[in-house]
Write a structure and sequence with these properties.
homodimer, alpha/beta, six-stranded mixed beta sheet, four-stranded parallel beta sheet, 10 helices
Chain lengths: ~270, ~270
């Protein structure tokens, strides 16, 4: 089993340290699994891990390499939306056989892949989670899913046979109406957020809940909303009341908490019926 | 001539000071014009200038009062999206005879009004601009448009006979796909932004430019992008290169600068063919 790591968004300055940690975890927990950190991980172009062309080329290369079994997005940040459409258009049949895993900004790619009908797309931990507190467990969990589709890696509330999808709230909002937007009708939608003001979270929920495409979901579950930025004056309520409020207003069932977030406890959510 | 001021979004704690300044400017530059600050301006509910119900009630009241000639949104902040749809649904015929002016968060209402076919909707200075440096000129300019549709108040690059619209970038992004989104086909679209990171501006431009509805505009002009928050590492380029880049990528004509922004030089942009 060979898993490729590419960095489609922000620069990955600590990629060597991350690679060492991830390879050590893999050697201990999944012997025989090879993790291939594509050299693009070491590129930098201002904010990004290389130019758009460099990031897209690496992504297309690993997608189309039949000797690789999975593509694991290295980290979040910002930028995969800049290459997603053109890269996906260059994917051949070998790309469909792979597993794909990431979250946060990588949601732009997860969305496009799922829209294109890829069967093994999941929201879950990324290599750079290795440097978080407790990140070793996150990396092991990701590998459990990538290597063996281990049920223990999954978000515990997933309902067998029902389609799910999971996104960072802001990323999902920014891809609505674009060529990356998947059809989420009848899906249980899990969302999480980090480092935003509550007023911006409220506004992003309006954007979601007032969109007819999102109103067709079977329901919304709320993951962790971490590092909320200050609101002056106090916004009133919290992320949960905000989400419940918009769900009620637009008739979307609110289905409770979800065990996902920008943290090392982040569980795996395969897209589709699982 | 009577102009009503309501505050559909953030609380308006300095409303008395603003009202004094605006009334003094009106008395000097437009004698005989009465500015009516609705008592709702003084309400506060956490972040907002009163509860959703209170803000909506004030907005509907002034909209339907045939003795008022214009509704002028007091300030930006956040929150008009929370009441726009329900308030607009309660507007009667008297609302259509009025002029409507604001910008920033008020763009949610401008959008909904324009979508509903209101003829006198414009993006331009608000009462609270009176407390900005040079804000007196902004207030006078707004009154020039509200009272007399003065051509000198208009953004100087507007093309006679061609339809225009103007929005804060983030506000426009957040209303795409919602019941507030107007048809901007063949419009010259002016955008401005304030207090965002360049990466977030880039992401918001992707969201706009990749949306088929926005790709139908006649072109985009960029107003001022003020108080850009730090990007670490440097994003590369600036707001203009970001907007030009996305316009090129999605085949939207980039038509140059626009004289709008979160500042006292902000000019008036009537929606539609003007």
């Amino acid at each position: 089993m060979r898993i490729a790591v590419v960095a489609p968004s922000s620069r990955f300055d600590d990629w060597r340290e991350v690679a060492e940690r991830v390879e050590a975890i893999a050697a201990r927990t999944h012997p025989g699994v090879e993790i291939y950190f594509h050299p693009q991980c070491g590129l930098a172009d201002h904010h990004f891990a290389g130019t758009d062309a460099e990031r897209a080329a690496a992504l297309v290369e690993v997608a189309n390499d039949a000797a690789l079994d999975a593509v694991w997005f290295a980290r979040g940040g910002y930028g995969s939306n800049r290459i997603a459409e053109r890269a996906l258009a260059a994917f051949g049949p070998a790309a469909r056989d792979k597993a794909w895993l990431g979250y946060s900004d990588a949601g732009f790619l997860l969305a496009g892949l799922y829209r294109a009908g890829f069967a093994n797309v999941a929201h879950g931990p990324m290599p750079r989670d290795a440097v978080r507190d407790g990140g070793e467990a996150a990396v092991e969990r990701a590998l459990d899913w990538l290597v063996a589709r281990s049920p223990a890696a999954l978000e515990p509330g997933l309902e067998p046979g029902r389609p799910h999808a999971a996104f960072n709230l802001t990323v999902l909002g920014m891809l609505l109406g674009t060529p990356l937007e998947p059809d989420l009708s009848d899906h249980i939608l899990l969302i999480e957020e980090v480092s935003e003001h509550l007023y911006a979270i409220d506004r992003a929920l309006f954007h979601l809940a007032a969109n007819p495409a999102i109103r067709r979901v079977a329901g919304i579950r709320l993951g962790r909303v971490g590092d909320i930025l200050p609101n002056d004056p106090a916004f009133g309520g919290d992320a949960r009341t905000v989400v419940r409020g918009w769900c009620e207003r637009y008739g979307i069932p609110y289905l409770g908490d979800a065990d996902i977030g920008h943290d090392s406890a982040n569980k795996v959510v395969p897209f589709g019926p699982g």
